[in-house]
């Protein structure tokens, strides 16, 4: 290539590089301008949102010199604030939840729940870390102070602090003063329980029979066919007085019903598939491997123990320690449902009371409804709907209302909704669904629910007339007891002093289905052995008799043959005697001497003696 061509190529390359650099600078400048525009747009949007939160409605704009903490300094106007004030001014006893927030907390506008309405059930919801557990503790403390018993599962161990007085500090006292709470430390009468004695507390056990096939199917994850078969097994055991106390009893009945001895027992009821029994038995083995064996047996807890009051009239707070619930979510949630169902079945109808006998807090409620069958959900809905007539209130505690089925959610009278987060499209959808379930209010709830602070919630309750109260942005009260777990020594001392420990502390193993069927099968095996021995003896006796018959037959045959021979000989002997009677009878000596042989011998003797041989 010539020098001119090389030079031209170099100049073209340099020009192209310069053009590329110019384009790159233009692109960077465009990106910078776009980023500045986006930042300005975001700042404008943030300012607009802040103005919307802090500025009053145009129709009720305050004077320019209005103090910053005036009632109309927040999203609600004066009329809205007054509606909430009157909407929560109840005549009867009420639980103090906190104070209205309208820009700032308003201690003169308390938010409350009528005590009589706590048996109309409720929901405490919110994202992790927003204060659900502390809300649960506030409710439990105030219920106990009003003489209402409380039951709650202590998932993380935090609730055990109700047995220990809280400790005040400057930050806590400033917060409580700001909502009009005269905070003083206090502890509350507490009973500690544990599932089957795993952990600290009085052991809570249930019998398999008391648990029932529906709840057990939920725990085992059985399908509808397998659930139906399990129900048939329970029916058979009940009909035949086979007590199902623990997992060994259930396994024994299942094994018996597909054995040779028991396979015909259910023939009239449709029978039991060996394949289905195999699935159930495998699930029971996996269930037992999780440590579930200890949860079933006797003595079975009397759920009326949860309705106790202390000597000073305060309700006892019953806390169920459930360590490692993440490993056994189905067992935990279903066991709590059994406790609730047992309360429903064992308590009398009382109608509407001035205050409930017991409020039952169902923490991690989403675990109860996960993978639940239609029959199970129907049972839950029926229990929740009807149990209030037994004086029992139920509060579900979970992250979002969508964790609770609509039929159950419709039964809940009080709602305490902590902050919800909308980081994903699914979160945003759940947020909109939650907002749609609230009555009309002066709030933009889709926004408000995402900006609530820790310890704040949107509250609406059922008033004394059974109508929903106005929606109120509420700063909640602080617990009076410790918000940290109680020391181990405090818990151990409370358990040791419990009057229930002697009654439920030691497991009992009485005769039940396992022992009865083991004995029945052993008796059947012994009977089979006896029948086999009798059959073998009968066969031996028959063989012996046959042999004896043959001997007798052979003997008779021989005797007949001998008789025939005897008769023949006698007949022959009888003929010889008649012929001899015609000639004179000779003596024996004459017969011998007269025989030819004798004559021959005599002749030889004589010849030998005298040497006289007769010549011929």
From TrEMBL:
Chain residue ranges for the region called Disordered: 42-78, 554-594
AAA+ ATPase domain boundaries: 118-426
Bias-annotated ranges (Low complexity): 42-63
Residue stretches of biased makeup (Basic and acidic residues): 554-570
Protein name: DNA helicase HerA-like ATPase
Domain of life of the source: Bacteria
Gene3D superfamilies the UniProt entry points to: P-loop containing nucleotide triphosphate hydrolases
């Amino acid at each position: 290539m010539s020098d001119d061509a090389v030079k031209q190529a170099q100049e073209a390359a340099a020009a192209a590089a310069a053009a590329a650099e110019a384009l790159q600078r233009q692109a960077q400048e465009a990106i910078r301008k776009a980023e500045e525009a986006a930042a300005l747009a975001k700042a404008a949007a943030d300012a607009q949102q802040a103005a919307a939160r802090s500025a009053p409605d145009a129709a009720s704009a305050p004077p320019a010199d209005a103090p910053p903490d005036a009632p109309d300094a927040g999203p609600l106007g004066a009329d809205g604030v007054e509606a909430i004030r009157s909407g929560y001014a109840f005549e009867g006893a009420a639980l103090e939840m906190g104070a209205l927030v309208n820009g700032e907390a308003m201690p003169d506008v308390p938010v409350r729940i009528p005590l009589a309405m706590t048996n109309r059930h409720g929901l405490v919801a919110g994202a992790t870390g927003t204060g659900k557990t502390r809300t649960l503790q506030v409710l439990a403390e105030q219920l106990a102070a009003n003489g209402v018993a409380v039951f709650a599962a202590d998932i993380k161990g935090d609730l055990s602090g109700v047995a220990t007085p809280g400790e005040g500090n400057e930050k806590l006292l400033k917060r409580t003063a700001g909502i009009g709470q005269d905070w003083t430390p206090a502890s509350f009468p507490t009973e500690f329980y544990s599932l089957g004695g795993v952990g600290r507390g009085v052991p809570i056990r249930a019998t398999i029979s008391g648990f029932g096939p529906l709840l057990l199917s939920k725990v085992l994850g059985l399908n509808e066919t397998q659930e139906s078969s399990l129900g048939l097994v329970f029916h058979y055991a009940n009909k035949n007085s086979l007590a199902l106390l623990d997992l060994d009893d259930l396994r024994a009945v299942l094994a018996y019903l597909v054995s040779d001895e028991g396979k015909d027992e259910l023939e009239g009821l449709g029978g039991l598939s060996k394949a289905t029994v195999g699935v159930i038995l495998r699930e029971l083995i996996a269930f037992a491997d999780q440590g579930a064996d200890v949860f079933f047996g006797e003595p079975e807890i009397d759920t009326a123990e949860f309705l106790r009051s202390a000597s000073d009239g305060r309700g006892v707070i019953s806390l169920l320690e459930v360590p490692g619930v993440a490993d056994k979510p189905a067992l935990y949630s279903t066991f709590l449902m059994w406790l609730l169902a047992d309360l429903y079945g064992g308590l009398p109808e009382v109608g509407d009371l001035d205050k409930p006998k017991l409020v039952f807090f169902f923490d991690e409620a989403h675990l109860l409804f996960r993978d639940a069958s239609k029959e199970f959900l129907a049972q839950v809905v029926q229990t929740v709907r009807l149990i209030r007539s037994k004086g029992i209130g139920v509060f579900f505690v979970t992250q979002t209302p969508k964790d609770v089925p609509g039929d159950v959610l419709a039964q809940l009278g009080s709602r305490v909704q902590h902050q919800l987060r909308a980081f994903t499209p699914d979160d945003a959808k759940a947020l909109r669904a939650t907002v749609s379930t609230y009555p009309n209010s002066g709030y933009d709830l889709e926004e408000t629910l995402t900006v609530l602070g820790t310890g704040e919630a949107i509250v609406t309750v059922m008033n004394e007339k059974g109508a929903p109260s106005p929606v109120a942005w509420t700063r909640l009260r602080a617990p009076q007891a410790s918000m940290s777990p109680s020391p181990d020594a405090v818990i151990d001392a409370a358990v040791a002093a419990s009057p229930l420990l002697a009654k439920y502390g030691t497991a009992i193993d009485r005769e039940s289905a396992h022992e009865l069927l083991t004995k029945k099968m052993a008796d059947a095996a012994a009977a089979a052995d006896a029948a086999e021995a009798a059959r073998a003896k009968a066969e031996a006796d028959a063989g012996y008799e046959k042999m004896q018959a043959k001997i007798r037959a052979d003997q008779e045959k021989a005797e007949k043959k001998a008789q025939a021979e005897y008769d023949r000989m006698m007949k022959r002997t009888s003929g010889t005697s008649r012929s001899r009677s015609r000639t004179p009878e000779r003596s024996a000596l004459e017969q011998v001497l007269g025989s030819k042989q004798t004559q021959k011998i005599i002749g030889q003797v004589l010849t030998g003696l005298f040497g006289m041989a007769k010549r011929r």
